[in-house]
Every structure is written in structure tokens, then in C-alpha cells.
Design a protein that fits this description.
By secondary structure, the chain is of the alpha+beta class. Strand 15 and strand 16 form a beta hairpin.
């Protein structure tokens, strides 16, 4: 940090139209973020469809910490710390599988998939020990909404319903894209590692200013019409939904175009089975409305980005190292749409895709630039003079305005000035 930053509490490094560059690069601030944000608030962990059967498990995370998400023998979702209570070894090294128990390789302590201790070798050495206190650590609070599983490492705080707030409506809209009303995460994850601070990624997800420049080449080649959604004369809006959540609401543009499935760059004639299933499920008029509006583009703070056809799950590993876990969205009862969702995800963010590669290059260049000391502050005031409240009281700006970024930093400041538990 420079001399100014050294003299200020963290919350004073955030102003209405600017933030201090040290917030992205100071390792001490990153450590404080872990306690005040990642180990305190609700964090998205995984989706119920990733563990459909009893004894299924999948490796997840909360911040840098590995978390085992299991469906135990009773069908309940469990979030367990991957750490043996004996000597601290990891008890699971597989990314996924089906197992009723986990055995530590160090001294062979064995745990049920609900975290309870099943047993240990040579039990004569543990006479009088209370086994109930020697299970795997459990995430204190676990809750799900429409299949999206969240965890909080603190026992107290707002419930998940309150935390999600208006973001619930976006998840509801996402689920309505399925004829059966359910989202599934079943195609596995790509992992993209970038040498950049996690907050640069969070900001970028609902930054409507950069697509016209960073993604210009892929928009031009694909001729998808996406680029014009983020033009200076777009009727789409940038919205801050409170509690750190933000969105680019593209529905005004899609409604103006009045083309079912236009959001996906296709037409009903190319997905007749999906259209028929949607009309059977919702009726012709409502199905048409859903297919015009499309799926949301929303950042659910701090780590779940729903990006129309895929989800991104952010994982901070260090002040300058972040992993994005990316998976194609799949909609129950929509096999023809799902095939194309997977193809488009691979084409846009897969190993040969340009979209995420473009963003990753910007993340890393920005983080390198932030190491320079002058200018010390970053300006985030775009659209401040034309910001307004919508009919629900949320702040909105033009498609390219930095309304979401300012909201995200306000929320960050509120979290960072509270005491760690």
C-alpha cells in the first residue's frame, strides 16, 4: 500500500466513484476478506443434481477451503471439511464418486458420509474417548434454493432466503426455462485459473462496458447479435440488486426484438421439440414470453455467476490467484436445447474458446497494472449522473454503466467494516 492507504481503514479506501488499487493487491486485505466475507456470508457450493443418488459425493470449496458435498444414506445434502480430526490429513482426494464412507490414509480413521466417526484401528488406545466429538467438521449452515446449495461457515446470520433477496427471482426465471422447472448441472466443470484478484472477476461479470471492446472479435465472427446488447444505445439496463448481487438485464432488448429463442441465437424452427415441451408445460402465450425473455445474466455475491447458458463458480486461492469453475447449464426435459447449450459453452469458454480467454487476459493485465503506484485510485463513476431507481427501488443505469460495480463495492465495505466472528 502507499502512504495514503496505510493511513486509512479499509472501508475508507472505497468512495462513491473510486476505489483504491491496494484493495486488489494487498495480501493482508485478502486474509481479512476470507474472515469477513468467504467464511462468514453464504457462499454457493454446488447443485443438488451433482449428487443425485445416495452416497454420491463431489469435491467443492468455500473460498480456498476444500469442501466435500455428499448425499448421505438418508438422502440429505452434507457439506464436510476435508480434514481428518486426528492429524489433519485430507480424507478424500477424488473429485467425485459414490462412497458411504471416507478413510484417512494416514492412520485409517474412517468416517460416514454424514461426517460422523465410524471407527479407528487399535481402539484400545482410545478408551473413554467420546467418538461423537471426533467426526469431520461440518459446515454450520447448509441450505438450498431451487437445487442451488449454499453454505455458511458461521452459525449465525441472515438465512439464505434473506441473503438471496431479489436474486431468487432470477433463479426462478432460470428454472422456468426448463419444461420441467428444474436446472441440472450434469456436464462437469472446466477450470480456468487466472493470476488476478477475485474481485476483478466479480466486477467483470456484470460490467457491460467491456464487451464491445474485449469481445469485439468473437462478436464479429459469430454474428450473434450479442455485441449490440452492450452498445451505447442499447435498451438493456445494468442493475444493482442489493446485498452484493447485480445483473445485466437484457430483457428490454429481447422484448423489443420479439423473437422467441433470440437470446440463444436461434429460432423455434431449429428447436421444435423444446418449443413443444415448453408450450405443453406453460401454455403457448407464457412459453413464448419465457422464450423471448431468455435466461438471466446475474452475479450472486460473492461467487455464483449465472451467464445465460452456463454458470461460473469463483474460487479465490490467493490475493493474486483465482479459479473459475465453469459448467454448461442443462434444463430438465429439454434434450435438444441441452445439446446446443453444451456445444455453445465449449465453443465460448472451452479450451479453444475466445470469450473467457479474452476476459482472462484482461484480468491478468489489470492485476499487473494495479501493482503500479500511480494513479493510486481507480475511477468507477461511469453513469453516476444518470443512475435512477426502477419500479422496485433498485438502482439501474444504462447497459454500459458501472452501477453494479459501485453497488458491489458498497456491499464489500459493509462486510469489511464489521468485526470478524
Amino acid at each position: 500500500m502507499d502512504d495514503v492507504a496505510d493511513a486509512l481503514p479499509i472501508e475508507n479506501l472505497i468512495r462513491r466513484d473510486r476505489v483504491h488499487g491496494s484493495l486488489y493487491t494487498d495480501p493482508a486485505i485478502f486474509e481479512r476478506e476470507l474472515g469477513n466475507i468467504w467464511y462468514r456470508t453464504w457462499v454457493y457450493v454446488g447443485h443438488e443434481s451433482e449428487v443425485p443418488d445416495a452416497n454420491d459425493f463431489v469435491m467443492k470449496s468455500i473460498g480456498p477451503e476444500p469442501i466435500i458435498m455428499t448425499r448421505d444414506g438418508r438422502g440429505a445434502i452434507q457439506l464436510l471439511h476435508n480434514r481428518c480430526p486426528h492429524r489433519g490429513n485430507t480424507v478424500c482426494v477424488a473429485d467425485r464418486g459414490n462412497a458411504a464412507s471416507f478413510t484417512c490414509p494416514f492412520h485409517s480413521w474412517t468416517f460416514n458420509n454424514d461426517g460422523s466417526l465410524r471407527g479407528f484401528p487399535f481402539p484400545g488406545g482410545y478408551q473413554g474417548v467420546d467418538r461423537s466429538r471426533l467426526g469431520l467438521g461440518r459446515v454450520p449452515r447448509v441450505a438450498s434454493y431451487r437445487g442451488f446449495v449454499f453454505g455458511s461457515l458461521t452459525a449465525d446470520g441472515p438465512d439464505l432466503h434473506t441473503h438471496l433477496g431479489a436474486a431468487r427471482q432470477a433463479i426462478d426465471a432460470l428454472c422456468r426455462t426448463s419444461p420441467d422447472g428444474e436446472v441440472q448441472i450434469t456436464t462437469g466443470f472446466l477450470k480456468h485459473k487466472v493470476r488476478a484478484n477475485w474481485k476483478l472477476v466479480v466486477e467483470n461479470e456484470t460490467d457491460g462496458y467491456h464487451p464491445a471492446f474485449v469481445h469485439a472479435s468473437i462478436f464479429r465472427v459469430a454474428q450473434s447479435g450479442i455485441g449490440s446488447l452492450y452498445s451505447d444505445d442499447s435498451s438493456a439496463v445494468a442493475r444493482y440488486l442489493e446485498d452484493g448481487h447485480s445483473e445485466n438485464d437484457l430483457r428490454p432488448e429481447f422484448r423489443k426484438r420479439d423473437e422467441p429463442l433470440g437470446w440463444f441465437g436461434t429460432s423455434p424452427a431449429r428447436l421444435p421439440d423444446y418449443v413443444a415441451r415448453m408450450e405443453a408445460a406453460y401454455g403457448a402465450d407464457e412459453a413464448r414470453r419465457i422464450m423471448i425473455d431468455g435466461t438471466p445474466h446475474i452475479m450472486i455475491y460473492p461467487n455464483l455467476f449465472i451467464a445465460e447458458i452456463q454458470i461460473f463458480v469463483l474460487q479465490p486461492l490467493a490475493v493474486d490467484l483465482t479459479v473459475q469453475h465453469v459448467s454448461a447449464l442443462q434444463f430438465k426435459g429439454a434434450p435438444d436445447l441441452n445439446r446446443r447449450m453444451l456445444q455453445q459453452t465449449m465453443g465460448s469458454v472451452g479450451p479453444a474458446g475466445f470469450l473467457l480467454a479474452d476476459d482472462a487476459e484482461m484480468y491478468e493485465r489489470t492485476h499487473m497494472g494495479l501493482r503500479a503506484r500511480d494513479p493510486a485510485w481507480l475511477y468507477i463513476g461511469r453513469g453516476l449522473g444518470r443512475e435512477r431507481r426502477d419500479e422496485n427501488g433498485f438502482r439501474v443505469g444504462a447497459a454500459t454503466d458501472e452501477t453494479p460495480t459501485r453497488g458491489i463495492w458498497e456491499h464489500y465495505r459493509s462486510l469489511m467494516r464489521t468485526a470478524q466472528p
